[in-house]
Amino acid sequence: MEYRVPNQVAVELTARLFMLQEMLARLWALSYAEAGFSDDDVESLHEAIRTHLPINVAGQTNDPMLAGLLSGETRTKLDEFLATVERFRAKNI
Known about the structure:
The protein is mainly α. Helices cover about 75% and strands about 0% of the residues.
């Protein structure tokens, strides 16, 4: 009998999303290096992204609490992604 983690599909999707985020962050870091961005350039760009990128998921649900939760989670994941890009850039990856 094969043992499967109860939420194996969720685990597999989470691992796939993590891998994709890591690879995309590496590509962003490499593109910054190729473009000759300074640390100040990257900091300014990331601040502009954080400030001006609309995180509006209200159209995804009629539930205001869920919309707030989704918006907060989306903002958190954006911050995590940009931090990963910055980490790779600092390591010259």
